[in-house]
Amino acid sequence: MKIVQIIGNMGSGGAEKLLLDTLPLYRKKGIEMDLLVLNDNEYPFMKALKETGCCTIHSLGSGSIYNPIHVLRLIPFLRKYDIVQVHLFPSQYWVVLAKIISFSKAKLILSEHNTTSPRMKSYFISKIDKLMYRFYDTVVCVKEEVCQIIQKYTGQVKSTFVVIENGIDLENIYAAKSYSKNNISDSFRSQDILLIQVARFSIQKDQETAIKALQYLQENVKLVLVGAGDLKKNCEDLVQKLELSARVLFLGLRMDVPQLLKTADISILSTNHEGFPLVALEAMAAGKPLIASDVPGVSDVVKDAGILFEKGNAKELAMHVDKLINNPEYYQEIVSSCKERVKKNDIQSMVDKHILLYKSLVQ
Question: Is Transferase a UniProt keyword of this protein (predicted)?
């Protein structure tokens, strides 16, 4: 049973992090699994994966992931593998077209990570999108909510969809050690309250609301933003405009996220929509309270554990932060709820469920 995972690149998103964490585990369990990227840029996740030596990594070059020539370049790989698992757009289109042209008998799996996409809002593109879904033998949804939304959108039969919730490496997070705050920045003091958000700077995320919330909080509350992306400059400009440069730190891409989460006092996930936010699980496992936007993909993960606030409402976010700071008992109550919630999302269970799926497809 030969399997290949296909994704645009190994950038800084949740799907990419999932591949970094799971590919070594499949190899340990005796599953022959490789990775194919449309673009081989040497992102930190790619470098870290290469260092594990767990799989063969194929690349289609260094150009745009949106180049249709990838359809032809994919054909030899669809003939080589028994199962092809695809993540994210546009890979999910190119793989389908390559299979049609090549007459490949490989089983196709689409991992659906999000509750929504811009393609759903375009009448013409949504027609193509729905057609593409029909070529997949199985659509793996990261949670039930995603499954219901995509099933309704595509009109496909329920048997095509499987729910396998995302998992995180709990042991790695539990074992991580916190830093002293001034190790993150010389300007941070031990008595400062550190908020942290780990996320790409993209239209899907909403770091701007987290930045604006600082206006309503005491001066010793600081915000650490971890991640990279096209909209980072927008957030940097907002920090300058609001004269918050002394209170906001941009750390860029980091591979020590568990340590950073443990160093912060409160985790924030300000976002517009998600599928199944891995960073929310990681934040809760780190033993710190999580405050997150009440949006699809987040609400049912955080509800009854962390704290939800209205999307884009900086004042409400600040209110929740202030309550956590000034009420130690409430703070510990949220921490305990978060740690309990995340126990069922161990990455080992997720890997085992995928292996059962692979075996069922090649029987």
Answer: yes
Task: Tell me how far apart the alpha carbons of residues 34 and 44 are, in angstroms, rounded to a whole number.
Answer: 18
For the domain made up of 2-167+346-362, give the CATH fold: Rossmann fold (3.40.50)
In CATH, what is the architecture of 170-344? 3-Layer(aba) Sandwich (3.40)
Count CA atoms within 13 Å of residue 103 on its CB side.
0
> Whole-angstrom Cα distance, residue 78 to residue 128?
21
Q: Integer distance in angstroms from the first to the last C-alpha of the chain?
A: 10
What is d(CA 347, CA 202) in angstroms, rounded to the nearest whole number?
Answer: 26
| Mean pLDDT along residues 168-183 | 96
pLDDT at residue 13 in the model = 86
Q: Note whether 2-167+346-362 and 170-344 share their fold.
A: yes
Q: What is the pLDDT of residues 335-356, one digit of tens each?
A: 999 999 999 999 999 999 999 9
pTM of the model: 0.88
Tell me the pLDDT band of 158, cut-offs 50, 70 and 90: confident
pLDDT grade for 224, boundaries at 50, 70 and 90: very high
Q: Where are the domains of the chain?
A: 2-167+346-362, 170-344
Side chain identity, residue 337: S
**Residue 146, number of CB atoms within 10 A of its CB:** 25
